[in-house]
UniProtKB/TrEMBL annotation:
This is Pseudouridine synthase. PANTHER family: MITOCHONDRIAL RNA PSEUDOURIDINE SYNTHASE (PTHR21600), PSEUDOURIDINE SYNTHASE (PTHR21600:SF35). It comes from Ruminococcus flavefaciens. Keywords: Isomerase. CDD domains: PseudoU_synth_RluA_like (cd02869). Pfam families: PseudoU_synth_2.
């Protein structure tokens, strides 16, 4: 089973659970012989189980009794998937907090870096949902105006489960931005989302002819950066226990900074 991604720890849990491992609908032991054509099903009562991974290392930007905010690197998924079973933020969280359920308050695409909040209990997750203001930073192709608002509805591409597009019958989506810096090829934008549609920043800047650097899904080039140049750099919220305002910041990563070699970036927190 190890070759199928079933760890020794997970196997132990399955063996202790009634009906955890079945063959053709009948409970079996892990040492029982199986034959070609047998259907083996593994069932966990707790579908929130995540395999801990102690080899990962993700900086913590803020933590208290109710929540933890990670500074996620680009290239790391938040949730496990078919292609990513043990290298996600969820797996690292399971290593740090084995007694807690993984409850992301905000989600970032795999290649988007920056702040990702995880609630430590169900009440905190409920209180924080929709109450967290985030500021993003993106390096986009070309020279954009000093500030602007993109108000364009977003819908799913009809032939794709991943791609989104601007289309009249889509959901309303509004993106506010201001230009912080420019270089020969790119502009650095600070972005405030009025709505939160899937791929909103990526779709909106592609729509105005300024796709994100590295975002080849929406027309960006990977000449200078191998991922979409998008970073969640600031997060503001009220502490769910005390009500006190909290602001957490994350430094712009080096791969995005490198797109502005002579820009003299002054990071504004």
């Amino acid at each position: 089973m190890g070759r199928k991604g079933v760890s020794r720890r997970l196997l132990t849990r399955l063996k202790r659970q009634e009906g955890g491992i079945t063959r053709n609908g009948e409970t079996v032991r892990s040492i029982d012989t199986v034959y070609n054509g047998d259907v083996i099903v593994l069932s966990l009562e707790d579908d929130s189980f995540l395999e801990p991974n102690s080899s990962l290392n993700v900086p913590i930007a803020f933590e208290n009794e109710s929540l933890v905010v990670f500074d996620k690197p680009g290239g790391m998924p938040v949730h496990p998937s078919i292609k990513h079973q043990g290298d996600t933020l969820g797996n690292y969280f399971a290593h740090l907090y084995p007694q807690l359920t993984f409850r992301p308050v905000n989600r970032l695409d795999r290649d988007t870096s920056g702040l990702c909040m995880i609630a430590k209990d169900a009440l905190a997750a409920k209180l924080l949902q929709g109450c967290c203001k985030k500021v993003y930073y993106a390096a986009v192709h070309g020279d954009i105006p000093e500030s602007g608002t993109i108000d364009a509805p977003i819908a799913r591409e009809r032939e794709s489960i991943i791609l989104r597009c601007v289309r009249e019958d889509g959901q309303r989506a509004v993106t506010h931005y201001r230009k912080l810096l420019g270089s020969e090829r790119y502009s650095l934008a600070e972005i405030d989302l009025e709505t939160g549609r899937t791929h909103q920043i990526r779709v909106h800047f592609a729509h105005i002819g300024a796709p994100l650097a590295g975002d080849d899904l929406y027309g960006g080039l990977r000449d200078d950066i191998p991922r979409q140049a998008l970073h969640c750099g600031r997060m503001s919220f009220s502490d769910p226990l005390t009500g006190e305002p909290v602001t957490v910041s994350s430094e712009l990563p080096e791969d995005i900074k490198s797109l502005f070699p002579t820009g003299g970036i002054v990071w504004k927190r």
